[in-house]
Amino acid sequence: IGLKDLPTIYVRHRLANIFKDGGFWLEKQVLDEEIFVICKKVFGEHHSDTLDSMANVASTYYALGKVESAEELEKEVLDLRKKTMGEHHPNTLSSMNSLACVYLALGKFENAKKLGEDVLELR
């Protein structure tokens, strides 16, 4: 896996979005996970494309009802985005919002409320 795989990443990403639009979530999950592995190897763990692909996996897990797995990934994405992009970056705020939604789904209302308030204040 190397730079020659860049076109493959973007084609897979487009196909994953087509699967999402068609409601083919299991197929999307497979592609999202593959894209994440490739991005991590090609770009490294802290690259924005890698973080975006990790967030896509988390979002797909959430849509499939795999909320605990989504929570784990969303926490990791948020931590890495805070470190690499800063607390006020729109992608960081988006990750905070996504994690707040996961907390709501898990019944962690105090965590969701706190994160929601943080997002509102930072925006």
Q: What this model shows, in words?
A:
Helix content is 82%, strand content 0%. It has six helices and no strands. The radius of gyration is 15 Å and the shape is globular. It starts with 5 loop residues before the first helix and ends with a helix. This is Kinesin light chain. It comes from Rhodocollybia butyracea.
Helices and strands in order:
Blueprint: H1 6-22, H2 25-43, H3 48-63, H4 67-85, H5 90-105, H6 109-122
Helix pairs in contact: 1-2, 2-3, 3-4, 4-5, 5-6
Task: Kindly summarize this structure in a few lines.
The protein has 123 residues and is mostly helical.
Order of helices and strands: HHHHHH
Structural class: mainly alpha
- Helix count equals 6
So what's the overall shape?
A: globular
Query: Could you list the spans in which at least 5 consecutive residues all have pLDDT below 50?
Result: none
Largest sheet: none
InterPro entries: NLR-like, TPR-like_helical_dom_sf
Pfam families: TPR_10
Protein name: Kinesin light chain
